[in-house]
Amino acid sequence: LLPLLTTHAESLLAAAKVVVTSRVTPYGIALSEAELDAAIDMVVRVVLSHVMQPTDTPAKTADDIAWIAQRVLR
């Protein structure tokens, strides 16, 4: 999986962003399209960073990422 997460990450990033966008947009987030795209990009990249090099347990990392996403998408 290392090449998929590093040098050939374009398709993975694109697919992950589509999935997250499809889950977030029904909530009518009060952000412009550009802001929402930036927020989703940030969330996807943070998740993939923690996949590559975790800093805590999966549960703690998930809680931390959910907190960050909530703050940005609020």
**Annotation field: number of helices:** 4
Give the N-to-C terminal Cα separation. 33 Å
- Give the radius of gyration: 13 Å
Q: What letter string, H or E per element, gives the SSE order?
A: HHHH
Mean pLDDT: 90
Compute the number of strand runs.
Answer: 0
Low-confidence stretches: none
Please report which band the strand proportion falls in: under 5%, 5-15%, 15-25%, 25-35%, 35-45% or over 45%: under 5%
Question: Structural class, from secondary structure content?
Answer: mainly alpha
Roughly what percent helix?
over 70%
Main sheet overview: none
Shape: flat
Kindly summarize this structure in a few lines.
This protein is mainly α and 74 residues long.
Keywords:
single chain, 74 residues, mainly alpha, 4 helices
If you had to describe this structure to a student in words, what would you say it looks like?
The chain is built from 4 helices and no strands. It has about 70 residues and is mostly helical. Helix 3 packs antiparallel against helix 4. The longest helix is centred in the middle third of the chain and has 20 residues, at about 35-50. It is flat, with a radius of gyration of 13 Å. It starts with a helix and ends with a helix. About 5% of the residues are buried.
Helix-strand blueprint:
Layout (H helix, E strand, L loop, with lengths): L1 H4 L4 H15 L8 H20 L5 H16 L1
Helix pairs in contact: 2-3, 3-4
